[in-house]
Amino acid sequence: MLFLALPLGAEGRPGAASIHVRNNAQFEAAVAKLRYRGGTIHLRRHVYRGELVVPSRSKRPLRIVGERGVIVESLLLDHTQHVTVKRVTIKPVTEDGWLKIYRSRHIELNDVLVTAERTRLRATVHIPNSSHVLIRNSEFRRCGDRSVLFSNCLHLQQRARHITVLNNWFHDCRGCDFIHGKFGYSLTLRGNRFERALPCRMNRHRCGHQDLVSLWSGSKLLVEDNSFGVYKNGAAQLYLIGAVDRVTIVNNVFKGTDRRVPGYHARVAIIVGSKRLKRVPRRVRIVNNTILTGAKRIDGYAGSIRMSGVYWRMARQKRPLLANNVLGLVEEPHYVCSVARLAISNVVLRGQRCNGINRLGRAHLDARGRPTAASTLLIDQANRRFGARRDIAGQLRDEWPDIGAYEYRPR
To answer: For the chain, how far is it from start to end, CA to CA, in angstroms?
Structure first.
């Protein structure tokens, strides 16, 4: 039975419909009823097994809002538009759990939990061939710890366009990539926490891929104001390979350790390009980051950043820019400084500094990676030409800005 109310202005306009549903059949009927008029579907607390589908519909907004405790096994937004999904848990029941946004546009996911916890299956948000998608204030955890198949919490496909991933928490997944795939044009990752890609012991093939973010192609990528945590078996915390162009990596903090996983060290923060591929990312800017990650990999490489040697054969203006960063470790400048278009105003904590206007020494950061009064290598030392206007906390930088993600503020 459907419960239908027509309150005045409930969704910001007179006559907006509000329908409460308790099962899959009622959901299907509600979607059909609101196809042309818009409104809100309230999911009563229930485990919605199988697949819920929102097909093609009008431009009038549709909101799907769950009560606390609602579990949806699969939700397909298929050739649809102007849909918001809020307070829903995507979780496997008898099959993999997923929320797929297929050939759709103007979609928002808000306060969604994606998890496969306590199952041997996977949970994923999958975005193929869609545009103008916002994912915000959501949580992704245990996306496939015990699945024999590769697990990605958020999986992008090549024609995904204008995707924004904002203020989400990705954490505690064994052998997962938190964000993986290809996009078409304009991907923004801002204000997210990527914490603890945990060791997986199932097998080497399944467990050897756990980059926090791994992207293979796309144009116009912004990675801003994020916090990156530890991983063990994988390439890097942020791995850009192939045709990922027009990239800005700014005001991020990369952490090499986590007290919740003692003895566990992330090895490389950022990898740009691969020695196996001739095609490498072009026009990459790595600016004003605090990169504390840095430990020796299995292959012997030791450094916070690694860039492909392919850049040696490219025009200088297409190579990465490295400016105003704190770099935890640079043991081989050849793969960091020498292949860059320009390496300027960076401070290296351990190893060797880049040639030119770069320095080596202690940064005197606090436990959160923020500068202190003793951080004289950082304070007022950034290059103003390439610096970020604001810091990771959103504060305007001084006329003489600081190196790293944070601008120093005396207490």
So the answer is: 60
Nearest to 239 by CA among 186, 201, 199, 293: 293
Cβ 388 vs Cβ 407: under 8 Å: no
Which distant-in-sequence residues (6+ apart) come within 8 Å of 197 by Cβ?
Answer: 173, 174, 175, 176, 177, 178, 210, 211, 212, 229, 230, 231, 232, 234
Q: Return the closest-CA partner of residue 101 out of 12, 221, 183, 209.
A: 183
* 4 pLDDT higher than 90: no
β partners of residue 136: 110, 166
- DSSP assignment of 158-214, as one string? TT-EEEEEES-EEEEEESEEEEEEEEEEEEEEES-EEEEEE---S-HHHHS---SEE
Measuring CA to CA, which residue among 17, 38, 42, 5 is closest to residue 27? 42
Cβ distance 91 to 49 under 8 Å?
Answer: no
Using an 8 Å Cβ cutoff, are 249 and 228 in contact?
A: no
Enumerate residues 6+ apart whose C-beta is below 8 A from 246.
219, 220, 221, 282, 283
3-class SS at 223?
strand
| Residue range 237-262, pLDDT digits in tens | 999 999 999 999 999 999 999 998 88
Q: Are 97 and 74 in contact (CB under 8 A)?
A: yes
* Position 11 pLDDT exceeds 70: no
- Measured CA to CA, the distance from residue 392 to residue 388 in angstroms comes to 9
Torsion angle of alpha carbons 291, 292, 297, 300, nearest 10°? 90
User: Can you tell me the distance from the alpha carbon of 265 to that of 254, in angstroms, rounded to the nearest whole number?
Assistant: 12
**C-alpha dihedral (305, 312, 318, 304), degrees to nearest 10:** 0
187 CB-near residues (< 8 Å, 6+ apart): 156, 160, 163, 164, 165, 215, 218, 220, 221, 222
Please count the CA atoms within 13 angstroms of the CA of 73 that sit on its side-chain side. Answer: 14
Question: If pLDDT is split at 50, 70 and 90, which confidence band does 15 have?
Answer: low
Q: What mean pLDDT comes out for the span 72-92?
A: 98
